[in-house]
Amino acid sequence: MTSAMLRFPSYPIRGVCVLHQKQNCAPHFAEIEVDFEPAAEGFAFEVAQELTVEYEPAESLPRFFAAASAGIEEQLNLPEHGVVIATRVVLRRARADAFGSHELAFKVAGYLAARKALACRFPATPSSVPRDGW
Question: What is the structure's pLDDT at 60?
Answer without folding.
Answer: 93
